[in-house]
Design goal:
Layout (H helix, E strand, L loop, with lengths): L1 E4 L12 E4 L2 H6 L4 H9 L10 E2 L12 E7 L7 H14 E12 L1 H14 L1 H12 L9 H10 L11 H10 L3 E6 L9 H4 L6 E7 L1
Parallel strand pairs: 1-2, 1-4, 2-3, 4-5
Antiparallel strand pairs: 5-7, 6-7
Helix pairs in contact: 4-5
Length: 210
């Protein structure tokens, strides 16, 4: 079994993975005509591959030692920190011995360094850009259509904590993962990495085994 957790919208390319997401927008996409309505009325694309399975990732029950690999890109930062730890524990239990976990996360070391360099040129612009990167609150009060869509579909964009490589490495180590390494974009032990990975800006890539 191979899992892609929090795969998000868009086409599924790695056919031998089970692609899972818990977004209410995925459920909405299964209603005929909803994609046209979301784009026309709310100005939001809501295109999901029909092969993506809807499951609550935080209540996802997996038998121990049944999963060969787990891939997850830009998911954990949208969970509460304690929920992230719970999910990583479940993942560790579910992996076979030698099974691979690969995480892609926004690189807040890179955002901080960018802020420091930008500050030397334009302090105001630097903090504005840094605030945008945090994604911890909406910058503008949503209008009526935005409020309606958020109520129906939820908010996918809030970051509830801000990961760095050192912090995530520490978490994985504490949870019992081994062979923890920092990787480059599409550099992986996973044979399907070119089909799974598509976020190569301001991200870091970390891989570990059970």
């Amino acid at each position: 079994m191979k899992l892609n957790l929090g795969c998000g919208p868009g086409p599924v390319l790695a056919e031998n993975y089970i692609h899972i997401d818990s977004s209410r927008r995925l459920l909405l996409s299964k209603i005929p005509g909803i994609n046209f309505v979301s784009k026309r009325v709310f100005g939001i694309e809501n295109n999901w591959d029909p092969k993506v399975k809807f499951k609550n990732i935080l209540r996802f029950h997996l038998k121990p030692k049944t999963v060969d690999s787990i891939y997850s890109s830009h998911l954990l930062e949208h969970l509460y920190y304690s929920q992230c730890l719970d999910l990583l524990r479940i993942a560790h239990t579910s992996l076979v011995n030698g099974g691979i976990l690969r995480l892609v996360l926004p690189d807040y070391d890179a955002y901080i360094l960018k802020y420091i360099e930008s500050y030397k040129i334009d302090p105001v612009l630097a903090i504005e850009e840094f605030e945008k990167s945090l994604l911890s609150y909406p910058r503008e009060k949503p209008g009526l259509s935005g409020k309606i869509w958020k109520t129906i579909a939820g908010d996918l964009h809030i970051h509830r904590w801000h990961p760095t490589y050192a912090l995530v490495h520490h978490l994985l180590q504490e949870l019992g993962y081994k062979n923890i390494v920092r990787c480059n974009y599409r550099e992986s032990k996973l044979a399907e990495i070119d089909l799974l990975e598509n976020r190569d800006l301001m991200s870091f890539y970390i891989e570990a085994t059970k």
